[in-house]
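Deliverable D4.2, example record:
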Amino acid sequence: MKTARLLLVDDHKIIRDGIRALLHDVPNVRVVDEAENGPMAISLVKKNHIDVVIMDINIPGMDGIEATRKIKEYDSSVSVIALTMLGEKGNIKAMIEAGASGYILKTAGEEQLVNAIISVMEGKYFFSDEAAHTVMMDMVYEQEPKNKKSSAFIKLTDRELEVLKLIVEEHTTQEIADALFISTRTVDAHRRNLLQKTGARNLAGLVRYALEHGISPTEL
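Output generated by the structure prediction step:
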């Protein structure tokens, strides 16, 4: 993994200092700047080459959700990891929709934070156990019976559902191909079909699609 250049965004200096200290000796991870509010974070992303933003949600001037959205609009290659005390599914969903690639709570330890950074640098997604449980198990239809899958899933083939399951579980194209005994080109074809059928624009959109329909990986 190349060296990940990090921007820390939190309005509490003691939190930023703590994160910086935790990551100081981690190989291939370098904190290059800090911001205490949303507008400052956006400005620093535009000024510096940033790979990963560690973003608190409850920050002044502009919350972390809107700041994430604007950062992704400016440079979609920048990965954002939410690091927050807010574990409600509404906040998790909003950050995913804004473009975040990860969501962990401030109760997490160093290992989870480092794993989150490594995951997003590899183009994957990372959710802490608490965040994943909240979204995957509790996000169900409000207007449809809980024991009914959305009609949107009816048009997906069994194979497409298998591929979607593995995408949600953060497997790479090669890993999906190996698991299903198909070629990587076939995996790519299924991914394109999923994007077309679900109306998603990217892999994050496919993950959101599954989450928003109350479907956990074990149900697919």
